[in-house]
Amino acid sequence: MYTWEDRARAQSEKNQSLTLRPENTAGVVRAYIEHQLGETGQLHKLFYIGPQFRRERPQKGRYRQFFQIGAEVIGPPHSGSESPLRDAEILEMLASLLDSLGITGWTLRLNSVGSAADRPVYLARLRDALAPVVGQLCADCQRRAVTNPLRVLDCKVPGDQPLIETLPRIADSLDESSRAHFNAVCAALDAAAVPYTLDHRLVRGLDYYTRTTFEFTHGGLGAQNALLGGGRYDGLSESLGGPRAPGIGFAIGQDRLILTLEAQQKSLPTRADAFIAPIGDAQNPAALALARELRRALLPGADTVDNGLRIELGDGSFRVRKSMEIADKLARHIVLLGEDELQSGILTVKNFSTGQQTKISRDALAAHLLAGRARPNIKEG
Ligand code: AMP
User: Fold this and answer.
1) Structural domain that includes position 327
2) What pLDDT, in 10s, does the model give residues 174-207?
3) Are residues 74 and 200 in the same domain?
């Protein structure tokens, strides 16, 4: 949380005291320091999900309160935290996440903003180049040129673009180790066939970012097209009084993720794979055992149990008709579990989309429930 006095922007306005939470990375790093996680010597993978608050001019996809899903990979250098492989690993994971959600047409934009040692060299070159031309740029850029010149590169005002394109590039001010780090990130992505676009103007809003910076954008979002963003922040822990702990993280804009899914007419998973309906209270314990078995079944194409079957459990006191009605709203199948089924091991399964009712042996049930599912956990909207 940050509190400050926000100056009135119009004569009719008064100064306001604002308390906002614009991002979580610094908070996570503070928690890393406070809880002495560095002393474990391990690489930590920490996450957060929750609302953020920024002073924004609201528009489609840009809100004053929005939600982020973020993660940070941080640890002492010998834990591998500084390795370019961490950067590539995170980017590969994010690409796979978007793919598994059925999001197509995303672009991964990649840049290196250099190390703390590279920064002053570049900023000096940028300031020198800006000085004679800054008056020709938009009002925001004129302010940024003084407060945070890197952000000039981020400007989207069409009239400013030709001039900004002539400014020095960060890539030309990277020292040998930053250049090697970035090349290694790109080489690992190439080997894994993760597509990316180099964007020499991609910078992060905050000063503490170093080396790799990235953004996944999507055309379906309109002007606010960043679906998620992140970067490396080697040196942040030290600047907060902590031990040396290089790190890299990202934040997915949850609101924009939903907007993208809507634009692609995809919905997040809403239906379970099956609703298990015990017939009679006596079947309740066996129904729980079956639910546990199915929830743990590792399916072909799923690499963790999290991607496995999603099961809802009814109750033996429900009449079959009531179970059918509930199951029809919640799940793609209903599995009836009466005394006969339990004894024979042959279960009655109804598929709600085809209306077909079939007898399936318990051993073949998990595979049957998976059949027809487009991707793990995803229902086409
Ligand atoms: P940032 O730290 O600014 O790169 O934010 C990470 C992600 O959060 C962005 O890529 C957006 O998806 C999302 N985001 C940032 N600001 C907003 C906002 N004002 N409203 C909605 N989503 C946002």
Assistant:
1) 272-380
2) 999 999 999 999 999 999 999 999 999 998 878 8
3) yes
